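Hey team,

Filing this mostly as a record. A colleague (T.K.) asked me to run one chain through the structure pipeline before their review meeting, and I want the input and output archived in the tracker in case anyone asks later how it was produced. No errors, nothing strange. Just documentation.

Input sequence:
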Amino acid sequence: MTHTILGLHHVTATVGEAQPDLDFCLNLLGMRLVKKTVNFDNHHVYHFYYGTESGAPGTIWTTFPYKGRGVLVGSKGTGQVVTTAFSVPAASIGFWRDRLRDAGVRVQEPSARFGEEVLRFDDPSGLWFELVGSDRDRRAPWDGNGVNPAQGIRGLHSVTLLVRRMEPTLEFLTNVLGYRLVGDAANRMRVAAGGDTPGHVIDIVEDADAEPAVNGLGTVHHVAMAIGSDGEQLRLRDDLLSLGLRVTEVRDRCYFQSIYFREPGGVLFEVATIQPGFTVDEDLSALGRALKLPPWEEAHRASIEEHLEPVEYR
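Output structure:
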């Protein structure tokens, strides 16, 4: 019953204000805004998609700016993605340490993990980020936001799941989703699907004494994995249901189709298709410039735009 996951698709978090989120991701980290839309479940909240040039699966970081919308600050804990890591060239870690510190960002000294240098820091909402130096990432960075291509972010590197017990999550990832074990260090296991290069990796950290996570501002909402086709997604859904998991119906996210469920450790997973991608409603050169709404929301555009705070970006 093993299914073929191609790697990471995207990671989605709940953040504070929209403008500081844009400034941090675009102007400091140098990513591209590949889509400006709304939360399909709450159309008065933005949904920003950041990535490289086309927003290819495995490069995408997405945020819901919920400050002032009745959502409290969350807390990191078990049953959650606690850290999102991005891939940069190994030689650029010193550049990023200095760049982040010069911008007033709290940065830890680089440390080593599985043979790679890791730089840990927080975003304006308190999310835990890492930059991981890798010489095995051949993806092209986005170079339109002031970061030299020699240092630019290549996309997602990995995510870290925090769970009370390692074994159920590890067994699910390997026996059902087709991941394989590629690293083991103390209380951390590393698995990969579709290859073991950046963009394909999940770390599982076990902490039996950690408190359960509370979703809210400054926490990751879910991690999405990529699957090749609608048919494969439906077969996976049927198998997950047969295992007794609660799985959503297939949801149309316009740029991909998605299903959602929780793995045995409580982390919310999404499995998303590759197609149709972010150029379905905008040309590649114009990605992220206009507010794009799903077809069923177009009739409400005037009201939606009235309730969204104005934002500025290059």
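Quick notes for T.K.: The domain at 5-307 is CATH 3.10.180.10 (2,3-Dihydroxybiphenyl 1,2-Dioxygenase; domain 1). The first helix runs from residue 18 to 28.
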